[in-house]
Structures are given as structure tokens and as C-alpha cells.
Specification:
mainly beta, two-stranded antiparallel ribbon
Length: 69
């Protein structure tokens, strides 16, 4: 997965795993596109941002199936 450089636009910031991301922080993340979709960040290069979904508190998690032998 490629990392996307984003800037936080969420007024109170958000938690990215164990890291607190504050408004105005610029960072690269493999989850950058999801942060943009949720309206928490904007794409640093294009300025594109998603529409803030009221009440969105977490990312959509894809199910992962792991075979155990």
C-alpha cells in the first residue's frame, strides 16, 4: 500500500492508533485515503477532502481472513 501525505482538518484532531493527530498536523499514512474520505484530513498535494460525516468516530475496518494450519 502506498502512503498518502495528508493534513489534519478535524478541529479537535483524532487518534491514529496510539498517536494523537492534531489540527494542522501533516503526515504520511497508508490510511491517508480513509482519513480523507471521513473528512478528518485533506490531501496535502491536491487539497481534496471528504465530507465530514457527523458522528463518525472510527475507520471502516475490512475483514481479514487468516488460515491457520
Amino acid at each position: 500500500m502506498t502512503k498518502l501525505k495528508v493534513e489534519v482538518i478535524e478541529p479537535n484532531g483524532f487518534m491514529d492508533g496510539a498517536l494523537k493527530r492534531d489540527n494542522g498536523d501533516v503526515f504520511s499514512s497508508v490510511n491517508g485515503a480513509e482519513f480523507v474520505r471521513l473528512g478528518w484530513c485533506k490531501d496535502f498535494n491536491t487539497g481534496e477532502s471528504g465530507e465530514r460525516i457527523e458522528g463518525a468516530q472510527s475507520m471502516k475496518v475490512n475483514d481479514v481472513i487468516t488460515k491457520v494450519n
